[in-house]
Amino acid sequence: MTQTHADYQLSQLDQLEAESIHIFREVAAEFEKPVLMFSGGKDSIVMLRLAEKAFHPAKIPFPMLQVDTGFDFPEVLACRDSWVDRLGVRMVVASVDDAIAEGVVVDDGKTSRNRLQIGTLLNAIEKEGFTAAFGGGRRDEEKARAKERVYSHRDEFGQWDPKMQRPELWSLYNGRIHSGEHMRIFPLSNWTELDIWHYIHQEQIEIPSIYFSHQRKVIERDGMLLSASDAVQPKGEEKIETKTVRFRTVGDMTLTGCVESSAATTAEIIDEIAIARVTERGATRGDDRFSEAAMEDRKKEGYF
Amino acid sequence: MSPEISPVAEKHEGRAQMDLLRFATAGSVDDGKSTLIGRLLLDSKSIFEDQLESVESTSKSKGYDYTDLALLTDGLRSEREQGITIDVAYRYFATPSRKFIIADTPGHIQYTRNMVTGASTADLGLVLVDARHGLTEQSRRHAVLLSLLRVPHLVLAVNKMDLVDWDEKVYERIHNEFTAFATKLNIPDLEVIPISALQGDNVVTRSENTPWYHGPTLMHHLEHVHVASDRDLQDVRFPVQYVVRPKSDEYHDYRGYAGMVAGGVLKPGDEVVVLPSGMTSTIEAIDLFDREITEAFPPMSVTVRLADDVDVSRGDMIARINNAPKPSQDIDAMVCWMTNEPLRPRQKLAIKHTTRSARALVKDIQYRLDVNSLHRDQDTKELGLNEIGRVQLRTTVPLLCDPYSKNRTTGSFILIDEATGVTVGAGMINSGS
Questions:
Q1: How far is CA A270 from CA B29, B170, B333, B382, in A?
Q2: Which of A25, A52, A293 lies nearest to residue B242, judging by beta carbons?
Q3: Cβ proximity of A187 and A24 under 8 Å
């Protein structure tokens, strides 16, 4: 819903939308084989919505790539399928299990599956020959991301070198790459978590139901509530309890914690977040807690 | 507002109506820049518990007797080890009326390119000085760069006033010296604010230590500075980014030109010219996703449909018939050079201007600009890393450009090394001839 003001000012949300659409069109115009990395989470769904707007009434001119961890929430997959059906986008699925079977990545039992996704993802990008991969990363998420470019250059090993990133001026994006390299594109760079939620609210975007308050069997572990499942069973003193919860991020079921919440609508979630005192990742992402520099290390290896 | 709208929905309406201010910060670590940004984030409640906890515990472990807010903004481990900031970092905070994007640029001499990068999209530049040292070569350089990048609003924050006993004379001296220097530059709007970032005086809350100061606090100024009139709404400029051809039965004949409005206001019915071909037509409709809209202005991303079947492709520009840029292959521009290997005459580079890519040949480097003294060094025939100079280029195809002073979108370009693909220069056009 664009508000046109007498003084020809766009609201900040309309401005973010306009800039993201500009990025999608720029990539579609300049890159041979773009792909949208789709996690099923709210940020990747907002990306999909922006891509839909960028090329309407034509279909989105590139496929979606999803890494199947084998531990995805069924509600997330259902939401994905509904989007794919509506937009008629081609889906490319890269499975972590297949990558393990093919020896592309090694599951030594000590590595979190989230990290196994990196190898799976890079392998899929290489195999399919994608030259640009859209990711839902936002600069407000984590300190190491504050310096991330909209166009983030990756070498032929998929690595990110903070010292090798190109200066990015005005709205002029440099999309030149050599054979074998690819570019990660972050069209949501300037959006904050609150912006994402306001946009979902404003556009009435369909997102997975687990973002909203529901009853769930959970286990409390390291101060996080994990969803009880075949893969997550109580250890030692832990017990399974039923609580009214919602997820603030979606990822691997074995790693993604939920929070106690009665927020059942986007408006209520916005309310909750507006007064939240703990950042998104710090609260519910087990894999970011290992070290302050965890994200930086993973990015260098080619993580989203 | 209908009565059934909840307070929450009203809040959303409020957010949806917020506008956006981008500002670039300049100053060195020693001027207290990171502390100031930390203070803005903290006092606008943009800091979360876990972030603050980690900063507090690090401060304690380092033996500080205060919480080092600068730690909030130190990003990469390599930087933390070196104790410097090496790149442009973007940070976000919001107040009820406005969202802010900070381009936080390092202040050291070798990082001119980062400052130029951060300033390229800024509505406002924030320069910090240490009240004890007054204006330095560095603060002058920051002001010059902000003026060169045509950042319309400038704030000089005189920091660490607590260390000079809140002496009004110190503030006055810096204020006068800077105002005198600024007259040589193009700075339409200047505000000089005495602050203490560490203690928070005049950052968000008005200080009792400065009864002699009657201007706004920094936050109040950031929230109220008027940026709406900084855009060119007179001269229609629509660089075509992407041609939308659905190739479906339903939209068999649909042909839309997608792009971001770079200047002026487009309306259906407007007579337009397509450059560089010079073909004319009329705007039939302007699509914003699935709606037809009555007007489009910067920086909206829209899709324009024309009444006639003229040949239009990416890199072309739609403008008004009597108000269009003249296509030109000879470009006169100020260039900031961003790589170790110097820029020399006869060099060939790739150039990207709006949605148009071409190759460029360096015809001449007229002078190097000393950004500290504004002296024009005409003996230098090359530009080194972080140097700025006036350059003549010849391009393989005509560019559809305006002077940078008139339009920051159609007046800017980047230069790319064709071998490495790296962005090596940023240009601001004086004129095309």
A1: 36, 46, 47, 54
A2: A25
A3: yes
Q: What are phi and psi of A113, to 5 degrees?
A: -65, -25
CB distance A273 to A283 below 8 Å: no
CB proximity list for B333: less than 8 A, separation 6 or greater:
B390, B391, B393, B404, B413, B427, B428, B429, B430
The answer to whether residue B116 neighbours chain A at the CB level (below 8 Å) is yes
In tens digits, chain B (433 residues) has pLDDT values of 333 333 444 455 566 678 999 999 987 667 788 888 888 888 777 766 666 777 777 777 777 777 777 776 665 555 555 544 457 889 888 888 899 999 988 766 667 888 999 999 999 999 999 999 999 888 888 899 999 999 999 999 999 999 999 999 999 999 999 999 988 888 889 999 999 998 899 998 999 999 999 999 999 999 999 987 788 899 999 999 999 999 888 888 899 999 999 999 999 999 999 999 999 999 999 999 999 999 999 999 999 999 999 999 999 999 999 999 989 999 999 999 999 999 999 999 999 999 999 999 999 999 999 988 889 999 988 999 999 999 999 999 999 999 999 999 999 999 999 999 999 999 999 986 6
Residue A162, Cβ neighbours under 10 Å: how many?
A: 19
Residues 267 through 306 of chain B touching chain A, CB cutoff 8 Å: 287-290, 293, 295, 297, 299-301, 303
Q: Give the whole-angstrom CA distance, residue A245 versus residue A236.
A: 23
Hey, is the C-beta of B150 within 8 angstroms of any chain A C-beta?
A: no
